[in-house]
Write a structure and sequence with these properties.
Number of domains of chain A: 2
CATH class of the largest domain in chain B: Alpha Beta
Number of strands of chain B: 6
Order of helices and strands of chain A: EEEEEHHHHEEHEHH
CATH architecture of the largest domain in chain A: Up-down Bundle
Shape of chain B: globular
Distance between the termini of chain B: 66 Å
Radius of gyration of chain B: 21 Å
Strand content of chain A: 15-25%
Strand order of the largest sheet of chain A: 3-2-1-4-5
CATH architecture of the largest domain in chain B: 3-Layer(aba) Sandwich
Shape of chain A: elongated
Structural class of chain A: alpha+beta
CATH topology of the largest domain in chain B: Dna Topoisomerase Vi A Subunit, Chain: A, domain 2
Number of domains of chain B: 2
Strand content of chain B: 5-15%
Largest interface: A-B, 29 and 27 residues
Helix content of chain B: 40-55%
Radius of gyration of chain A: 19 Å
Largest sheet of chain B: 4 strands, parallel
Oligomer: heterodimer
CATH topology of the largest domain in chain A: de novo design (two linked rop proteins)
């Protein structure tokens, strides 16, 4: 069994003295692990930093084996953001969430493309919004998408301000006013048409609200069976974002 | 020496970094052949080291005394603390003989994959040391990896209220390095950290 594909490094764990078990998110083969001989050694270690884009060749005798990777570095994204605490936290979080949430060896080409676009756009000013949107789309790709088309309480498709933590459906400000303490805030940028939302009283807090919203549903659907819970890298990003707000 | 003793020696040597079962067998035979000149002194040295080496209560370095020789040296500059991941990094910096301040060994880096969180690292003691009036600068000498730099940013946040200057090691072209042979990441880091000449 063998294949070649492009992938993004999600994690690399040292195995033995100089080998590493590398987890990649590939376009055609989904999240796929493999052993890299010498991957934890001095020369190759830099290739397997989270966020780096590689061309990977995977080979194994049987398909169910872990197999061996041989990778060529295409883009060293991690090195670009080592000095930027916020963006480095974003890069670590996106890789950790993808690793923890996505099932192994199940192709998710759209998630791969969106992850590539997110990493490529890390230099933009609105990268944090892109991060929240990436998590929203990840939930949808895994079958746990939020229904933000109209108000679950019959309030129509405009003035959407909350999301019900039970159903994952949007709720308008008018319909949700009584229960607002039990609802999750819905930042307008998460809607396909932000005009259907409500202008935030605290624009700086929109990102933190978005992270709380997607974090809640990721924890409930994607990380519920993982004893480690929400990846610490994601928790650190959310903490940094709330401090900024 | 019974066969069991030899097997046990080989098994233990094979656990050392850089040694597998084959090289452990070679090392065992080498030791057995030089019993008086090498094996016995090595056994005594190992026993003595196991009994006397302790982690320094101040910086986390390993030494036979607590505080360690670096912390106890009155000629060193108390106003600068260099923060490193492991004792091996401290030794590497000491080999350069270019740093005359104090050290602080974190004991690793934040690594969610290995289950290492802030509470597993020697950070609280660093914050305590940085709060002392003598300390003016903290140099973060963690690795140029995502985990190393994430740890450095976390430590920076924790030291924010200590009123000390915080700096970090430069990333870029190594001495003797040729651009053609450098990886893309190192080159882009070097470009970002370019300086006026």
């Amino acid at each position: 069994m063998d294949w070649t594909d492009e992938g993004i490094v999600l994690s690399a764990r040292k195995h033995g003295e100089s080998a590493a078990i590398v987890n990649l998110l590939t376009e055609g083969h989904g999240r796929h692990a493999g052993l890299v001989r010498g991957g934890a050694g001095k020369r190759a270690r830099g290739i397997y930093e989270p966020g780096n884009r590689v061309r990977a060749a995977w080979k194994a005798r049987l398909e169910e084996h872990l197999g061996n990777y041989t990778c060529e570095l295409l883009q060293a994204s991690a090195a670009e953001w080592l000095d930027d605490p916020m963006r480095l936290a974003g890069l670590s979080a996106v890789c950790a969430v993808a690793e923890a949430a996505l099932p192994e060896r199940e192709p998710h080409p759209e998630t791969y493309v969106r992850l590539s676009e997110f990493i490529a756009g890390l230099g933009r000013d609105d990268w944090l919004k892109s991060y929240v949107l990436w998590e929203r789309d990840l939930l949808a790709d895994m079958g746990f998408g939020l229904d933000l088309s109209e108000c679950a309480g019959g309030g129509g498709g405009t003035g959407l301000a909350y999301v019900s933590p039970k159903s994952g459906r949007a709720v308008s400000r008018a319909a949700g006013e009584t229960y607002k303490d039990k609802l999750l805030a819905l930042p307008a940028f998460l809607l396909d048409d932000p005009a259907r939302g409500v202008e935030s009283e605290n624009p700086a807090g929109e990102i933190a609200d978005g992270l709380t919203l997607t974090g809640y549903f990721l924890e409930r659907h994607a990380f519920i069976h993982d004893a480690r819970g929400v990846p610490p890298a994601r928790t650190r990003l959310a903490a940094r974002a709330s401090r900024q707000a | 020496m019974s066969t069991n003793d030899i097997d046990r020696l080989i098994q233990l040597l094979a656990k050392l970094p850089g040694l597998g079962p084959r090289s452990a067998r070679r090392a065992s035979l080498h030791l057995i052949k030089r019993r008086d000149s090498l094996m016995t002194p090595l056994a005594r040295a190992l026993e003595a080291a196991a009994e006397s080496i302790v982690p320094c209560g101040i910086c986390g370095n390993l030494d036979t005394t607590d505080p360690c020789a670096v912390c106890a040296d009155p000629r060193r500059d108390n106003s600068v603390i260099c923060v490193v991941e492991e004792v091996a990094d401290l030794w590497a910096l000491e080999r350069t003989a270019s740093f005359k301040g104090r050290y602080h060994v974190l004991g690793g880096v934040l690594s969610p994959l290995d289950g290492v969180g802030p509470e597993d690292l020697n950070i609280d003691r660093l914050v305590g040391r940085a709060g002392s009036e003598e300390v003016k600068e903290i140099i973060l000498a963690t690795g140029a990896t995502v985990d190393g730099q994430t740890t450095a940013h976390y430590v920076t946040d924790r030291l924010a209220d200590c009123g000390v200057s915080i700096s970090a090691l430069a990333h870029g072209i190594p001495v003797g390095g040729e651009l053609d042979y450098l990886d893309d990441g190192t080159l882009s880091a070097a470009l970002k950290a370019r300086r006026q000449v």
